[in-house]
């Protein structure tokens, strides 16, 4: 048996929350587990990348609907966030890159938590979306300036995004909008993650909850896209009927 003594110092940064736990084990087993986790998270990142480009192409080529654009940007931000978070498991980058990487992760967390409630506000076509955007932006900027810990910043941003998303869903329910219950179901895992999994296993559970949220939004987006296409086809049909009626009226005097 061996006795191991570990001392963690925060002398140069006393405000930093520090390491929440230390896990001991065999090097090969621990490394293999980290690679498996990173591989699974990269699968989720790849799905988000594909969805982001798909809905961005839908926005550019077919329907200039703002909800498609915001959802595409949300998927691309989640993709970038996951890649930056888990690149350390398989790439030994130089130490001077560490804090720029953390700053990039914080930027992706900021953008993601800004886009989630704003997406709901745009999707349900609720009023005062510009004021809501400005309010969320200022609150998250205040959190970023007052919280020095990266993890605590992201945690508070997640809480802020969850509260504004819940406000949007409640407002949509009061306005008799379609599918507010499905939207509420999509944010329940995020709320459970915030309540029960911080700080231990928070990253993995949060990204899984975020993937569930994106999957539910894909269902909403497909229904919305199907309705738009149905409206577009019915409008084309009405245009053809009007053209046929006008053509009959124009041709009728020639046969008299």
Task: List the keywords.
256 residues; mainly alpha; 77% helix
Please give the radius of gyration in angstroms.
24 Å
Shape designation: elongated
- What count of helical segments does DSSP give? 7
End-to-end gap: 111 Å
The fraction of residues in strands falls at: under 5%
Number of strand elements: 0
Low-confidence stretches: none
Helix-strand category = mainly alpha
Q: Indicate the percent of residues in helices.
A: over 70%
What is the overall pLDDT average? 82
Q: Sheet bearing the most strands, described?
A: none
N-to-C SSE string, H for helix and E for strand: HHHHHHH
Describe the structure.
The protein is an all-alpha fold and 256 residues long. Helix 3 packs antiparallel against helix 4. The mean pLDDT is 82. The longest helix is centred in the C-terminal third of the chain and has 54 residues, at 202-255. It contains seven helices and no strands.
Summarize, please.
This protein is mostly helical.
List the helices and strands and how they pair.
Elements lengths: L26 H35 L4 H21 L11 H26 L5 H18 L3 H25 L5 H17 L5 H54 L1
Helix pairs in contact: 1-2, 1-7, 2-3, 2-7, 3-4, 3-5, 4-5, 5-6, 6-7
């Amino acid at each position: 048996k061996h006795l191991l003594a570990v001392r963690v110092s925060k002398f140069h940064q006393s405000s930093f929350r520090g390491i929440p736990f230390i896990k001991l084990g065999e090097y090969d087993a621990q490394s293999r587990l980290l690679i498996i986790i990173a591989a699974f998270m990269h699968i989720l990142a790849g799905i988000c990348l594909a969805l982001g480009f798909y809905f961005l192409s839908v926005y550019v080529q077919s329907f200039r609907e703002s909800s498609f654009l915001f959802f595409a940007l949300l998927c691309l931000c989640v993709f970038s966030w996951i890649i930056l978070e888990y690149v350390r498991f398989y790439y030994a980058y130089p130490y001077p890159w560490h804090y720029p990487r953390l700053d990039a992760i914080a930027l992706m967390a900021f953008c993601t938590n800004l886009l989630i409630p704003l997406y709901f506000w745009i999707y349900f076509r609720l009023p005062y979306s510009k004021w809501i955007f400005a309010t969320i932006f200022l609150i998250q900027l205040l959190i970023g300036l007052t919280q020095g810990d990266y993890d605590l910043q992201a945690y508070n941003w997640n809480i802020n995004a969850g509260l504004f998303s819940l406000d949007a869903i409640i407002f949509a329910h009061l306005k008799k909008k379609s599918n507010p219950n499905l939207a509420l179901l999509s944010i329940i895992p995020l709320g459970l993650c915030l309540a029960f999994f911080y700080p231990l296993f928070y990253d993995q559970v949060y990204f899984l909850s975020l993937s569930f949220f994106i999957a539910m939004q894909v269902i909403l987006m497909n229904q919305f896209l199907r309705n738009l296409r149905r409206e577009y086809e019915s409008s084309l049909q009405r245009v053809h009927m009007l053209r046929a009626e006008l053509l009959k009226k124009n041709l009728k005097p020639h046969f008299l």
